[in-house]
Specification:
This protein is of the alpha/beta class. It is 56% helix and 10% strand. Strands 1, 2, 3, 4, 5 and 6 form a six-stranded parallel β-sheet that branches.
Length: 216
């Protein structure tokens, strides 16, 4: 799942911190000044990323509204009807195209907490709920050590609403990835997750039988 982070270059250090926090949830965040290769055609690359993103996150600061590019990005994404979640710094409110969107207030000290609220919005919005869960599953499937597998499992089950297909993907990843299969923490979390899923759906029982060797 892709997110487009719109910001003034003067705020690049803060933007980088926010990007890293959001990416810890498995979301691929496009940060123009970091991610555009010097040889790439600037406007074409920006437009391509705006079309591909599921969520647009403008970082509202005093510098944001002085930037030519942020205004262009905001206008384009508004016309594409993407999910827009503004982050405001120093009481800078959304203006123009995005004035009707409620902004998350953020400071350096509340960065992690504000990002959690942003993720909750992404997880619950109809436009992004499914791709967000797919991103969590992909992050879980790529676990590269026992501790990482446990942490990713914990993050995975923090959100509900997985489809039968997605639960199959979770179990398939557990079966294929030895780091997950042999992680005591991941196995404990997945057992609770499956027990709860079994109570909600008769399909859950069938899935557990189908992947009985995925859970140690």
């Amino acid at each position: 799942m892709k997110a487009f982070f719109s910001y003034s270059n003067k705020d690049r250090l803060l933007a980088g911190k926010i990007k890293r926090e959001i990416e810890s949830y498995g979301i691929d965040v496009f940060l123009a000044h970091d991610d555009i290769e010097p040889s790439a055609e600037w406007a074409e690359k920006i437009f391509k990323e705006l079309r591909a993103c599921k969520v647009f996150i403008p970082l509202l600061t005093k510098s944001f509204y002085k930037s030519y590019w942020t205004g262009q990005e905001t206008g384009i994404v508004f016309s594409l009807k993407k999910l827009i979640i503004p982050i405001k710094i120093d009481k800078i409110n959304p203006q123009g195209f995005i004035s009707r969107f409620q902004a998350l207030t953020m400071t350096e000290t509340t960065l992690k907490r504000s990002c959690r609220k942003l993720i909750q919005t992404i997880a619950s919005d109809p436009k992004t709920a499914a791709p967000f869960r797919a991103a969590l599953i992909q992050k879980f499937a790529g676990s590269d050590d026992f501790n990482n597998a446990g942490d990713n499992a914990e993050l995975l089950v923090a959100y509900e609403g997985y489809t039968v297909k997605q639960v199959r993907e979770i179990l398939r990843a557990t079966k294929r990835n030895n780091q997950i299969y042999r992680s005591w923490k991941a196995q404990r979390i997945l057992k609770r997750f499956l027990a709860a899923y079994k109570q909600k759906s008769t399909i859950g029982t069938r899935l557990i039988r189908e992947f009985k060797d995925a859970i140690a």
